[in-house]
Amino acid sequence: MGTNNKIAILGAGESGVGAAYLAQQQGYDVFVSDFGPIADHYKQQLQDWNIRFEENGHTEAEILNAAEVVKSPGIPDKAPMIKSLLEKGIPVISEIEFAGRYTDAKMICITGSNGKTTTTSLTYHILKNAGLNAGLAGNIGKSFAYQVATERFDWYVLEISSFMLDNMYRFKADVAVLLNITPDHLDRYDYKMENYAASKFRITQNQTAADYFIYCADDAETLKVLEGKQMAAQQLPFSIEKQIETGAYLDQDKLIINVNKQHFTMSINELALQGKHNIYNSMASGIVAKVLELRNETIRESMGNFRNIEHRLESVGKVSGISFINDSKATNVNSTWYALESMTTDVVLILGGVDKGNDYGMLKDLVKQKVKAIVCLGKDNKRIHDAFEDDVEVIVNTGSAQEAAQVAYHLAEKGDTVLLSPACASFDLFKNYEDRGRQFKAAVREL
């Protein structure tokens, strides 16, 4: 730790507060600083633990006096405070990097532009069903650092975003999963796809020949990076387009996994998660399970009885024969593409919110095939109108989840699906995508 044992934590959300607790437990002099207000329950925790903190601004002298800084994933490297720290040569790391030092548990790390929460949850579900002593953390659930401080797990299943990876240096994944790379958050990567792809591939850094790298062999961006890359880890691809010797593939409607002479097969019709994108997610989780040499019976049972996470293609129920689906977690165009691709009925699509420079072009074909009306849910819907006015007869603007649900209900007919899959962030009308999803579900229940 050296003579300077001061550590500053920037951001007092789930990851920051968890990191503060672990740092205090490890004997650091901890100071937490948040540029905005701190939520009451996190403030209460910091007070209960006697950890110094500030909100609504940074005291530069205090932070620049730290030996190391743990920053929340949401803070960009372009933030003035981060620039000052880097200029002074003070290391800035992620919560995952920090917490990883204090556990010898094995790490299963899952990243990708889409599907990572579902795949992480499914993988954790399989491990728990197999009786493994496993924790679930990262971008999901309780803070990794807090669990390292308070639990003793043998395994962690971590959902890792590119923002977390950017500040991870020595941390190593024993099993790394990269689901796909599609344009997202490009504003954080100088609008260069190669920068974003390089960030995703940091999931493989520090891996050795004893480790595993699981990836999608149908993903063009992943293959592009792999072409020029030396990998120490054992590579296990998965594909629904071609046969794979070691990894996973689809043979008609059979999902087949071959790993380390371990063989697994299951009909895709028996999977709890349906739709093409979910076959990929199930393949990735299945390969992890076979790497761990879990029993086929356990894997098959787990993949068959898994319940998807809230706000990700979540069935809200039927009203007058119309199905309502909450996919509020779809905050980018690609996620909405996956949602539409899995629909088997006519759709009334609820779109909109804070547009991150979206290219709606990739949705056009699916919208023409499946969408009978679009209900906009956002303050500025001009780009949605411009993108789809030639493809859909009805495009309506609404200003609340309740109004959107009511309008969509009246536009739909028996047998149709009303799909909330916004392709946008939620901050114009809601606190976050969870708030948007919950308000939508409440509105459906009132119909």
From TrEMBL:
<keyword id="KW-0436">Ligase</keyword>
<keyword id="KW-0131">Cell cycle</keyword>
<dbReference type="Pfam" id="PF02875">
    <property type="entry name" value="Mur_ligase_C"/>
</dbReference>
<keyword id="KW-0573">Peptidoglycan synthesis</keyword>
<keyword id="KW-0133">Cell shape</keyword>
<feature type="binding site">
    <location>
        <begin position="112"/>
        <end position="118"/>
    </location>
    <ligand>
        <name>ATP</name>
    </ligand>
</feature>
<dbReference type="InterPro" id="IPR013221">
    <property type="entry name" value="Mur_ligase_cen"/>
</dbReference>
<feature type="domain" description="Mur ligase central">
    <location>
        <begin position="110"/>
        <end position="288"/>
    </location>
</feature>
<dbReference type="InterPro" id="IPR004101">
    <property type="entry name" value="Mur_ligase_C"/>
</dbReference>
<dbReference type="GO" id="GO:0008764">
    <property type="term" value="F:UDP-N-acetylmuramoylalanine-D-glutamate ligase activity"/>
</dbReference>
<dbReference type="Pfam" id="PF08245">
    <property type="entry name" value="Mur_ligase_M"/>
</dbReference>
<dbReference type="Pfam" id="PF21377">
    <property type="entry name" value="MurD_N"/>
</dbReference>
<dbReference type="InterPro" id="IPR005762">
    <property type="entry name" value="MurD"/>
</dbReference>
<keyword id="KW-0963">Cytoplasm</keyword>
<protein>
    <recommendedName>
        <fullName>UDP-N-acetylmuramoylalanine--D-glutamate ligase</fullName>
        <ecNumber>6.3.2.9</ecNumber>
    </recommendedName>
</protein>
<dbReference type="InterPro" id="IPR036565">
    <property type="entry name" value="Mur-like_cat_sf"/>
</dbReference>
<comment type="function">
    <text>Cell wall formation. Catalyzes the addition of glutamate to the nucleotide precursor UDP-N-acetylmuramoyl-L-alanine (UMA).</text>
</comment>
<keyword id="KW-0961">Cell wall biogenesis/degradation</keyword>
<keyword id="KW-0132">Cell division</keyword>
<dbReference type="InterPro" id="IPR036615">
    <property type="entry name" value="Mur_ligase_C_dom_sf"/>
</dbReference>
<keyword id="KW-0067">ATP-binding</keyword>
<comment type="similarity">
    <text>Belongs to the MurCDEF family.</text>
</comment>
<keyword id="KW-0547">Nucleotide-binding</keyword>
<feature type="domain" description="Mur ligase C-terminal">
    <location>
        <begin position="311"/>
        <end position="424"/>
    </location>
</feature>
<comment type="pathway">
    <text>Cell wall biogenesis; peptidoglycan biosynthesis.</text>
</comment>
